[in-house]
């Protein structure tokens, strides 16, 4: 039997998916978790063969759960998401996730991916992989990315300037260039976009 942990903060989706997986002759659902912290605790306690993790959960997201759990337990992780952005896929693969698929897939397809991953394989949804491969290259310079990284938690222009040993006016010029290139109106929007696309 393949022992599976299911984590999703939407109760209806979590219970429906768990119920459908329980109909499979070779899959046993050993835990249902409503958030990332509960998923980590249950995975450490139960050592499931596969963790099926929703990407967007309160507290720790599915990728963060996978990163923490796979460091300690010999389990394999699959991330499911409603919004399969290329940057998220890159972050998931870098965190040791073995499977990545959108929530639009049926329970029978999810069961097949669970079997493949449990057997040591990997699976990335073809549409997500194609989007990741065709994703536009980052238009920002290394220094512009440095400015975004240094200010990703809302640091002031002065704080960013001190962190990067730049003049405040130079930081403002970089921020202005970033906003223009990304066609956004605030630095926070630029940070979110860069994180989404896996640039920072």
UniProtKB/TrEMBL annotation:
<protein>
    <submittedName>
        <fullName>Response regulator transcription factor</fullName>
    </submittedName>
</protein>
<dbReference type="InterPro" id="IPR016032">
    <property type="entry name" value="Sig_transdc_resp-reg_C-effctor"/>
</dbReference>
<dbReference type="InterPro" id="IPR011006">
    <property type="entry name" value="CheY-like_superfamily"/>
</dbReference>
<feature type="domain" description="Response regulatory">
    <location>
        <begin position="3"/>
        <end position="118"/>
    </location>
</feature>
<keyword id="KW-0238">DNA-binding</keyword>
<feature type="modified residue" description="4-aspartylphosphate">
    <location>
        <position position="54"/>
    </location>
</feature>
<dbReference type="InterPro" id="IPR001789">
    <property type="entry name" value="Sig_transdc_resp-reg_receiver"/>
</dbReference>
<dbReference type="InterPro" id="IPR039420">
    <property type="entry name" value="WalR-like"/>
</dbReference>
<dbReference type="InterPro" id="IPR000792">
    <property type="entry name" value="Tscrpt_reg_LuxR_C"/>
</dbReference>
<keyword id="KW-0597">Phosphoprotein</keyword>
<dbReference type="Pfam" id="PF00196">
    <property type="entry name" value="GerE"/>
</dbReference>
<feature type="domain" description="HTH luxR-type">
    <location>
        <begin position="133"/>
        <end position="198"/>
    </location>
</feature>
<dbReference type="Pfam" id="PF00072">
    <property type="entry name" value="Response_reg"/>
</dbReference>
């Amino acid at each position: 039997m393949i022992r599976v942990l299911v984590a999703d903060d939407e109760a209806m989706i979590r219970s429906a998916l768990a119920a459908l997986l329980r109909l499979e002759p070779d899959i046993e659902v050993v835990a249902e978790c409503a958030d990332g912290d509960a998923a980590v605790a249950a995975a450490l306690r139960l050592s499931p063969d596969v963790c099926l993790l929703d990407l967007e959960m309160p507290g720790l997201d599915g990728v963060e759960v996978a990163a923490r759990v796979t460091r300690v337990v010999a389990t394999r992780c699959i991330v499911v998401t409603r919004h399969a952005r290329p940057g998220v896929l890159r972050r998931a693969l870098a965190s040791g996730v073995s499977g990545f698929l959108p929530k639009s897939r049926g329970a029978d397809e999810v069961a097949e991916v669970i079997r493949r991953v449990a057997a040591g394989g990997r699976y990335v949804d073809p549409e997500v992989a194609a989007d990741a491969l065709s994703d536009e290259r980052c238009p920002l310079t290394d220094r512009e990315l440095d400015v975004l990284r240094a200010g990703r938690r809302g640091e002031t222009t002065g704080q960013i300037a001190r962190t990067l040993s730049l003049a405040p006016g130079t930081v403002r010029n970089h921020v202005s260039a970033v906003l223009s290139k990304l066609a956004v109106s605030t630095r926070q929007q630029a940070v979110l976009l860069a994180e989404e696309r896996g640039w920072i």
